[in-house]
Amino acid sequence: MTTPQSLNAQFAIPEQLSFREDYSGLIVAEISNPQATASLCLQGAHLMAWQPRSQAVPVLWLSRDAKLAAGKSIRGGVPVCWPWFGAHASEPGFPAHGYARTVPWQVVESGTEPDGATRLTLRLVESEKTRAQWPHSCTLDLTVIVGERLRMELSTENTGASDFAVSEALHAYFRIGDIGAVHVAGLAGCDYWDKVGGSTLKKQDDIIRFAGETDRVYINTAAECVIEDERLKRRIHVAKSGSLSTVVWTPWTAKADRMGDLGQPDGWREMLCVESANAIENTVRVAAGTGHTLIVEYRAESL
């Protein structure tokens, strides 16, 4: 049985990385090094918090109403969406965005990078329930490198004899000053599927500003995105590889009220999702005996 004590004995790094049990019974990794702090729940390999020492406000957003509970996803941070993004193509009873964010993961490695950042690698734990939803032989690892920059690497290895296709996302929620005072640059000229009021294909003319519910899947783009935040006086850069979709999402008032866990009444105004993904046309086929890795690097700079 995995316990904080056994994890600390094998993977803790003095004055950098330790493990504790949450009141919910779930295990959380706590990272604190000279560059940044972070916390990660082993269920779902869910990074809940990241704050570089240079930033007065966390870069990731976690809902005031977020709860840790066995088998439940956490609202905020960076959920791992895998092996499908959105609804399952043929099984409406399967969980939206896949099962990876709600099942146990195990720690397989920890270490310190040459620049002093902290590295932690986790692997999804398969079970009869996961195999019933995903009957393919594979491994899924997530490596998180926490420093002044945050790097996340989601690696799928096909260990079977047949090809399979995955759609996926690192579903990052960013802490912003106010949704009405930010814009996103980097996607001008890109096609996107507009999911609000029906799915229609459109083209982005310029920067993205927000005045209502926004749910867009930008396709065929590996572009770096930048969140310009007038209220917090900072830029958040999202650079990626192994990803050809970018999802931009804010629920706005009515949907936030229906969801009920975004920190009522106005917690949603302090968050914006810019997700690095492979979805719709950009679903990835992983050939037998090969792998695919989605990599994202985040950094924040003051204006």
Explain how this protein is built.
The chain has a single domain (4-302), classed as Beta-galactosidase, Chain A, domain 5 (Distorted Sandwich). Helices cover 7% and strands 43% of the residues. The protein is built from 3 helices and 23 strands. The strands form 4 sheets. The chain has a 9-stranded antiparallel β-sheet, with no helix packed on it. Strands 5, 11, 12, 14, 15, 17, 20 and 21 form an 8-stranded antiparallel β-sheet that branches. A 4-stranded antiparallel β-sheet has the order 1-2-3-4.
Brief characterization of the structure:
The protein has 303 residues and is mainly β. Helix content is 7%, strand content 43%. The strands form four sheets. A nine-stranded antiparallel β-sheet has the order 6-7-8-9-23-19-18-13-16, with no helix packed on it. Strands 5, 11, 12, 14, 15, 17, 20 and 21 form an eight-stranded antiparallel β-sheet that branches. It has a four-stranded antiparallel β-sheet with strand order 1-2-3-4.
